[in-house]
Structure formats: structure tokens, C-alpha cells
Design brief:
The radius of gyration is 19 Å and the shape is globular. Helices cover about 40% and strands about 15% of the residues. Helix 4 runs parallel beside helix 5. It has 10 helices and 13 strands. The longest helix is centred in the first third of the chain and has 21 residues.
């Protein structure tokens, strides 16, 4: 079995990825500063001898943390990098802070990887790198012209990965996620996605706010499907140096999504509209050819099924609270 470092592993997508790795018997080290992640997301593994958690900030020198793990378990062999500042609006308010976390933190990890012989890095990139005016569906060859500092940082890191591959032979795969949703996405967080917010409002029968006219589209992909793609990209030696879109290939409007949520939740929530937010992409959907060909990736969870499962999780959280 492989020793895998998962940065941001207590977060939304990261914790689902940890679940999959652990269920397959790998040794997993999670490094997370818990600024947006929660230990509750990974609590089920706390007493498993194959699981290790360190609270640490990737913008600090985490070499000591990783060396401490290596002295006990052996050196990390592969790395999955989620840790990031992921809120587009926050990146626009504080681009310098965005660079500090997303670029400088990542480069520090790449330096550790190349100095310590990490076998492969899987990087969580984003569809935010694409030009808002690019023809849809986008593919991996579509023009990259980000409309936010967050998207710029993700694109910069892809260039750094290529640089480390050419100069040092670092093996990597970068995955550009479309709009990921599912259980554990905190609706009260500044980083939350539209589905988690809508579901939270719907179960409380509170008004739902849609920015712009609601006819903007997204390609919503379920968290466990994304985790499957991430684990494949990390543990398999194919797709080296590749950038791959991860979505469903299905385009749905925000209005349609809101109506489906209200129907599933049997909600009395009303829908209101607010002005469009700067940095938001108008249309977003991907082709699936490259993911299918290089990762044998096929999403298993359709949108309605995924919304039902996420709704069930939201309701359990209300009971817990």
C-alpha cells in the first residue's frame, strides 16, 4: 500500500478523498490548518493505525511535520494537494493573500516533493482558469484567461508543475474541477458552493438568493465522483503531465437547480434575484473525452440523486446542531 499525503484533507473534497484512500487500505497523512476544514470530516479514521493527522499551515515550513511522519511511518510516497484559498470573491478582495496561500504554499510543497523524491503529485486545479467567452463545452485546449485572482493562481500553479516536471522530472497530473457539490460542504462558509447554500435555505424555508438572472449554467459533479478521479490520478502512473477536466458534461442553469432543490425539499422558500457578482463565469460545462480516455473516469452520481443524498446530509446536520 502507498503512503499518501493529502493537504487540505479535512476539507470538503479532501475528506471524501481520504475516505476512499483509507477504504482501500492506504496509509494516509492529512495536513490541514482547519481554517475551512473540520476534524469531524475525518473523525471516523482517528483511531486507525493507517491514518495520521497534523494540524499545519502549508504557507509555513511543514518540512518538520513531514519529517516527523517519515520517522514513524516512512517517507510520503505520493501527494494530493487540495489546500487552498478557494473563494473567488475573497481572492478579488485580497489577491496578495490569495497568492500567499495558493501559489507560495504550493511551490513550497513542490520543493519538498522534488527534494524528497515524491513519486507523483495530483493537483486540484479549477475550471476558473477558462475564459468566460470561451465556446462551451470547454475542453482542456480551450483558452485559459481567468477572470479572478483565484483562477489566475490555479493557472500559475499548473505552469509551476510543468516547470518542475521539465527541470526535475516531477510526475504530476492536474485536475480542473467543475462545480463540486455534496455532503460536508459547509453552507455557512464564505467558501461554500451554491448548492449547499440553496439546500440549507430550502430546509429552513428561508428565501433563496440567485445572483444575476439565474440563466448562468454550471456543470455540477458529485464529491465522491471527484474523489474517485483524484485517487486514480494520484495512484496510477498514467496521465503524466496532463491537465484533465473533471465534471459530468451536463449543463444546468442555476434556476433549474434551485427549482429542483425546492421540489426535493418540499420547501416554501421564495426565490429572489440580486445583481451579478464580479468574477462569476456565465456558462460552464466540460467535455468528458480526456477524463474517460486517460483516467477511465465516468461520473456515477446524477444531479438529482446527488441532490437527494446531499439534502439527507443537510437534514442530519440540522438534527446534530
Amino acid at each position: 500500500m502507498t503512503r499518501v499525503l493529502v493537504t487540505g484533507g479535512a476539507g470538503f473534497i479532501g475528506s471524501h478523498t481520504v475516505d476512499l484512500l483509507m477504504s482501500r487500505g492506504h496509509d494516509v497523512l492529512v495536513v490541514d490548518d482547519l481554517s475551512t476544514g473540520f476534524k469531524a470530516n475525518i473523525a471516523r479514521w482517528a483511531n486507525d493505525p493507517k491514518f495520521t493527522f497534523f494540524k499545519a499551515d502549508i504557507t509555513a515550513d511543514i518540512t518538520g511535520t513531514l519529517d516527523q511522519y517519515a520517522a514513524i511511518k516512512g517517507p510520503v510516497e505520493r501527494m494530493i494537494h487540495f489546500a487552498a484559498q478557494t473563494a473567488v470573491p475573497l481572492s478579488m478582495d485580497d489577491p496578495v493573500g490569495d497568492i500567499r496561500v495558493n501559489v507560495m504554499g504550493t511551490v513550497a510543497l513542490l520543493e519538498y516533493a522534488r527534494r524528497n523524491g515524491i513519486e507523483k503529485v495530483a493537483f486540484a486545479s479549477s475550471s476558473a482558469v477558462y475564459d468566460d467567452d470561451a465556446p462551451v463545452p470547454v475542453n482542456e485546449e480551450s483558452r485559459a484567461r481567468p477572470s479572478s485572482p483565484y483562477g489566475i493562481d490555479k493557472l500559475v500553479i499548473e505552469f509551476y508543475l510543468d516547470y518542475y516536471a521539465r527541470l526535475y522530472g516531477l510526475k504530476y497530473t492536474a485536475l480542473r474541477f467543475m462545480n463540486v457539490y455534496g455532503p460536508r460542504q459547509d453552507p455557512k462558509s464564505y467558501y461554500s458552493g451554491v448548492i449547499s447554500i440553496f439546500l440549507d435555505r430550502a430546509v429552513r424555508n428561508e428565501p433563496i438568493t440567485i445572483f444575476d438572472d439565474g440563466e448562468q449554467t454550471r456543470d455540477f459533479v458529485y464529491a465522491t465522483d471527484v474523489a474517485d478521479a483524484v485517487v486514480k490520478s494520484c495512484l496510477e502512473d498514467g496521465a503524466l503531465g496532463e491537465i484533465i477536466n473533471i465534471g459530468t458534461g451536463v449543463e444546468v442553469t442555476i434556476n433549474q437547480t434551485a427549482r429542483t432543490i425546492l421540489d426535493l425539499a418540499k420547501s416554501r422558500s421564495t426565490i429572489t434575484h440580486a445583481p451579478a457578482r464580479a468574477g462569476d463565469i456565465r456558462r460552464s460545462v466540460t467535455t468528458m473525452d480526456k477524463a474517460a480516455r486517460l483516467l477511465a473516469f465516468q461520473p456515477k452520481v446524477g444531479l438529482r440523486e446527488g441532490l437527494e443524498q446531499t439534502l439527507a446530509w443537510v437534514r442530519t446536520q440540522m438534527i446534530v446542531r
